[in-house]
Amino acid sequence: MTGDGTQRFGVLTEMSGFLLSLAQAHVYRLDEALDTLEGLTTAQLSVLTVIHENPGIRHGEVAEMLMIKLAYMTKLLKGFEASGWVERRSDPADRRAIHLSLTPAGQGVVERTLPVLLAHDAARPNGLTPREMGQMKRLLAKYLELPVTEQP
Amino acid sequence: MTGDGTQRFGVLTEMSGFLLSLAQAHVYRLDEALDTLEGLTTAQLSVLTVIHENPGIRHGEVAEMLMIKLAYMTKLLKGFEASGWVERRSDPADRRAIHLSLTPAGQGVVERTLPVLLAHDAARPNGLTPREMGQMKRLLAKYLELPVTEQP
DNA sequence: TATTGTTATACTCTATAACTATA
DNA sequence: TATAGTTATAGAGTATAACAATA
Predict the structure, then answer these.
(1) What is the pLDDT of residue B2?
(2) Domain HTH marR-type, which positions (chains A, B) (predicted)?
């Protein structure tokens, strides 16, 4: 690389969409080195975590929370079911709806891998101080209008 | 949707990687409604903008700045060349290297579409006050260790 | 030997639309 | 008629690796 470090992003650095996209690419690139998640992608682990946190949640609710297409959720869940991690049962009151929950095996996967990802996330290199990182996470959660987690 | 709004993200909201990923999905979803970019994706417009800001920049340098795979850059640039937007010329001093610049047509595209995306970005709905948005953008740029833009 | 860029393949995820079955 | 989920197809973008040309 012969770059002299003077490249300009121009007005791109004023655009939240661009910055978020690049930050996501940065995270994604570093997370690809993470080989300790038992073959799961971070997206897959997010789905399992949401089911873990909300046993009985509906198929479509998970998709909405994580902004995943319903069509792709079907594919993901099919894989999880084949792995024996997720159970689906239809709602007797509305037989279109499907409620999801983790099997003991699925809970085991989440309980083993989530702490690994959490530690990795906390240690991922970036240009912020710990205080600034806390600030950024709060702003991102507010940006997304996420429900406040009241964790003791 | 029968959700009662009590779904929990659990520890996911503590993870910068998850928050960035979800924020990016949020942006992406809303940007898909943007049909005024002359058929460009935001990623493609980013590439054109970087070439616009750095005439003569090398192929690989653009890829590194935008965290795009070199192999995919080749594909993108082939399309841009076919559209008559980008010119490639090889470096006489290092005949492996390829320097990029916009044609007048390419400059026209950037000058028409970039302001549209900029306005769209500024108006994109989110949970932050304008002051918080400024803060978030500053933190994201620092997170990414982007060169400071000294725009007058 | 290392670097720049090209080509090809497989994979993840998205967009879209047609479809079934319920409500 | 509208909603929950399924299936299939096309496309964007990534990872990977083999390759050619040049340094």
Answers:
(1) 43
(2) 12-145
